[in-house]
Amino acid sequence: MRIGCPKEIKPQEYRVGITPVAAAEAVHHGHEVLIERGAGEGAGFADSEYEAAGARILPDAASVFAEAEMIVKVKEPQPEERRMLRRGQVLFTYLHLAPDPEQARDLIESGVTAIAYETVTDPQGTLPLLAPMSEVAGRLAPQMGAWALQKANGGRGVLLGGVPGVAPGRVVVIGGGVVGTNAARIAHGMGADVTVLDKSLPRLRQLDEAFGGEIRTRYASRGDLLDLVSEADLVIGAVLIPGAAAPKLIRRADLALMKKGAVIVDVAIDQGGSVETARPTTHADPIYEVDGIIHYCVANMPGAVPRTSTIALSHATMPFMLKLADLGWREALRRDPHLADGLNIHAGMVTNQAVAEALGLPFVPVEQILSDQIAA
Description:
By secondary structure, this protein is of the alpha/beta class. It has helices spanning 20-28, 47-52, 61-67, 79-82, 101-110, 131-148, 178-189, 201-210, 222-231, 306-327, 329-335, 337-340, 353-359, 366-370, and strands spanning 2-5, 32-36, 56-58, 70-72, 90-93, 113-116, 170-174, 193-198, 216-219, 234-237, 263-266, 287-290, 293-296, 343-346, 349-350. It folds into two domains: 2-119 and 305-370, NAD(P)-binding Rossmann-like Domain (Rossmann fold), CATH 3.40.50; 131-299, NAD(P)-binding Rossmann-like Domain (Rossmann fold), CATH 3.40.50.720.
């Protein structure tokens, strides 16, 4: 199979979909790897490293999209990239379609077979291709929140770790999954007073044991959420519903309860955000203020540390990429129902129920696609 990797063009996105190590592995499996010139530079990978791995360097994205049978990326395809997709081609990347009807429409019209990293599952019911970037984003969230809390950036002027004689900052993490756990770990390490909310009592018990009781846990009722948010210096939104739009847990009216200059870092912004006043921002212009509350809503947080993020993501995606290339997408999905969970769109049809419901579109089960009732 011809596997293509274009350079990411989303603002301040420096990750790359295929590392030289992954390229070498694909070549070893008998596949041809096509890399756009300079695609890996932002993550510290030179074209010469890809050539040494056996990949072929192409001059531009148009060449990659034209030749490749499967496109492997990091971020969702931008409008100019979506115009280059075609029926019969496989797209393997993060999509986050639920809050993005324009992207969904373009992918449907292109006829492409789109497999989303964020909905691929594993036997434990977790999301193995989302996890590494969730780990990175979770660990970055307290750092970014601490920066936004500085008075020069509009924040309250609170040092999360405090100093002797001065109380530490209060951090509230909404969601105890991968993002929330990593955010709590870093915030706790910074010396902050940390509370994690979640609706799963077993998860709260796990967190209590993991942190040796050194962070607080609370059940995520509406009343407890408002109580904690009103006292917080930093709120980290870390809630995920696979494939679906994030629930709006903090409403605009709730901001009036918060301390002026408090900060919200909404890690769920890729899925529409868990805060009503959240809107996507970029690394170049990451924060804005609403009703006295500072919002940090960068939609590609791991892009701030592209080398770490790229290597971590590639370790997770490479086995699935090779399976798709070795077997073809249809047979790979038949053999691996967890990879089949990643299929979001095929030949103009939406094949993920959460995405279909979020966008108000007809849903076609993956099983129907794989049954040969629908042509490739």
